[in-house]
């Protein structure tokens, strides 16, 4: 678990992160300090089995959030706002992120990274969702996964699709600056309801590291 040291600013939103197929917690560990430094309580989890499928990973994300809000150490709970929660994950963990967002519509944000799931229609999700994919991903090609998933999010309060230039599947399991920046901006905007971060999402960012960006602007 990762969380801000400063308690003078009140409580913080919580984020649970889950890795992908046959990956350990290390695949999402980079998100811990990255997000905690921006004012979030972060729980990066290992899965019950390295071969868990996306739905099981989503269930474990929700269990992680339940632990954060109910049974985590006092130092964590005193920093956490239990009404401001989000999920993120890589690969099959991205598929689990979609499942968790569908299952728990009270979540404030969901960010699947290079998501993999046999289900491509997520029209039942209402949670603001940022889908990220990579142009060079051959494990979860964007044309098969990220793009149709984004297009299906017709009920999401807000949605966006970011395609990272030259990113392979494993890029999302490392500390890529642009991936982290987009994640932070989405969480700050929708978990913290901080409208100052909308400028980084809407209108579409023009970073040279993006080959495509689509969204449902405006979010205000």
The ordered H/E elements are EHHEHHEHEEHEHE
Shape: globular
Strand-residue fraction?
15-25%
Alpha plus pi helix count: 7
Question: Which regions are unreliable across 5 or more consecutive residues at pLDDT < 50?
Answer: none
- Number of discrete domains: 1
Please state the average pLDDT score. 96
CATH class: Alpha Beta
Radius of gyration (CA) equals: 16 Å
Question: Approximately how much helix is present in the residues?
Answer: 25-40%
Q: Please describe the biggest sheet, giving its number of strands, its sense, and whether it closes into a barrel.
A: 7 strands, mixed
- The CA-CA distance between the termini, in Å, is 32 Å
Characterise the protein shown here.
This protein is α/β, with parallel strands linked by helices and 220 residues long. It has a single domain, classed as Alpha/Beta hydrolase fold, catalytic domain (Rossmann fold, 3-Layer(aba) Sandwich). 29% of the residues lie in helices and 21% in strands. It contains seven helices and seven strands. The protein has a seven-stranded mixed β-sheet, sandwiched between helices. Strand 5, helix 6 and strand 6 form a beta-alpha-beta unit. The termini are far apart.
């Amino acid at each position: 678990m990762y969380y801000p040291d400063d308690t003078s600013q009140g409580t913080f939103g919580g984020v649970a992160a889950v890795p992908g197929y046959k990956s350990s917690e290390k695949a999402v560990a980079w998100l811990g300090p990255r997000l905690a430094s921006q004012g979030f309580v972060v729980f990066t989890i290992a899965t019950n089995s390295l071969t868990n499928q996306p739905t099981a990973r989503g269930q474990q994300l929700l269990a992680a959030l339940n632990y954060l809000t109910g049974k985590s150490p006092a130092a964590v709970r005193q920093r956490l706002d239990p009404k401001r929660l989000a999920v993120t994950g890589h690969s099959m963990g991205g598929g689990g992120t979609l499942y968790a967002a569908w299952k728990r519509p009270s979540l404030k944000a969901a960010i699947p990274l290079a998501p993999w799931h046999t289900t491509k229609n997520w029209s039942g999700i209402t949670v603001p969702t940022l889908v990220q994919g990579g142009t060079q991903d051959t494990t979860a090609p964007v044309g098969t996964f990220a793009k149709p998933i984004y297009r299906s999010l017709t009920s999401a309060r807000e949605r966006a699709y970011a395609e990272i230039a030259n990113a392979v599947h494993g890029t999302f399991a490392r500390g890529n600056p642009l991936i982290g920046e987009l994640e932070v901006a989405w969480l700050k905007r929708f978990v913290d309801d901080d409208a100052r971060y909308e400028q980084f999402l809407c209108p579409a960012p023009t970073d040279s590291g993006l080959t495509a960006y689509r969204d449902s602007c405006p979010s205000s």
